[in-house]
DNA sequence: TATAATGATAGTTATTTAATATCATTTATC
DNA sequence: GATAAATGATATTAAATAACTATCATTATA
């Protein structure tokens, strides 16, 4: 089990890279070549980030992707939620089944509270932090 | 992503059940029937728990499993570690690859710290807590 | 000796994740 | 206007993991 999955990790790397490069726009092909990420894979991630309003796109020849938000306005939890199904680590596999009462489940309460903690921590970690502190 | 996977969840339920029943030994077949868990599946879990010294076994006719530890001596994190590959949620998929220096990775540091928090929390949650507080 | 249990381990199926492929649309340049 | 180079949308395949099943040997009781 990983807290940050591959998609999220790639997304973070791409965004950090784009900030560092400081180019107006950069194509999926270039990112794929420079960061050594499979082309169709990074395309899907870039498309998602653009749908989520984190990237701008310019179509057609010479087009590509550029950042729409400032690094201090992108948090890690935002990206995790986009690529990891809202990060619902509490989801009970036994609901409607063995478990007598979901509301009285101590384990569930504990996990829920841990989830809250994680979301707060990653909510305070921006892309700027990742760039600046390194 | 789930914090507690199916194996761990079953293991917890079985142990709680065994404490509540207060029978000397109980067979895998009985547990399977009473908790509605697939027989070969629960067998594997029981075998693992017995290898890990959480259960005692008696082989042969009339045999089965019984608890070896007290509920206050079994923590949730123990069970998670047994069934979930030590719960290494930090594991970096990019080592030896893109990442320039694993030691300077801010994201990694953050995730590692979250992992530590989770392990402490689940380390303080015993099976007795799960029974008593319910 | 037959039966009912676990020990050990192999094998299968289902689900999820990772990666690839295709074609339409857009836009810059020649 | 034609061509090339880009993204948009979406379908498909492949690999990995998780879930589940099966088999046979060994043990112990009646």
Element layout with pairings:
Two copies of one chain form a homodimer.
Chain A: H1 6-21, H2 28-35, H3 39-51, E1 55-58, E2 64-67, H4 76-83, H5 106-123, H6 127-132
Antiparallel strand pairs in A: 1-2
Helix pairs in contact in A: 1-4, 2-3
Chain B binds a DNA duplex (30 and 30 nucleotides) through α3.
Description of the structure:
The structure is a homodimer of 134-residue chains. By secondary structure, chain A is mainly α. Chain A has one domain (6-132): Orthogonal Bundle (Arc Repressor Mutant, subunit A), CATH 1.10.10. Helix content of chain A is 51%, strand content 6%. Chain A contains 6 helices and 2 strands, in the order αααββααα. The first copy, chain A, has helices spanning 6-21, 28-35, 39-51, 76-83, 106-123, 127-132; strands at residues 55-58, 64-67. A two-stranded antiparallel sheet of chain A has the order 1-2. In chain A, a hairpin with a 5-residue loop joins strand 1 (55-58) and strand 2. In chain A, helix 2 (28-35) crosses helix 3. The radius of gyration of chain A is 18 Å and the shape is elongated. The mean pLDDT of chain A is 87. Chains A and B meet through helix 1 and helix 5 of A and helix 1 and helix 5 of B. Chain B binds a DNA duplex (30 and 30 nucleotides) through residues 5-7, 27-29, 38-41, 43-44, 46-47, 50-51, 57-65.
Core attributes:
homodimer, 134 residues, mainly alpha, Arc Repressor Mutant, subunit A, 51% helix, DNA-binding
């Amino acid at each position: 089990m990983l807290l940050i999955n591959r998609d999220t990790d790639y997304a973070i790397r791409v965004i950090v890279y784009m900030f560092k490069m400081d180019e107006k726009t950069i194509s999926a092909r270039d990112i794929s070549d420079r960061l050594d990420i499979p082309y169709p894979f990074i395309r899907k991630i870039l498309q998602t980030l653009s749908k989520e309003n984190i990237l701008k796109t310019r179509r057609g020849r010479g087009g590509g992707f550029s950042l729409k938000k400032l690094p201090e306005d992108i948090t890690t939890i935002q990206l995790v939620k986009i690529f990891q199904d809202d990060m619902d680590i509490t989801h009970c596999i036994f609901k409607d089944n063995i478990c007598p009462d979901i509301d009285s489940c101590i384990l569930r309460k504990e996990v829920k509270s841990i989830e809250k903690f994680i979301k707060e921590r990653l909510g305070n970690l921006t892309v700027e932090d990742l760039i600046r502190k390194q």
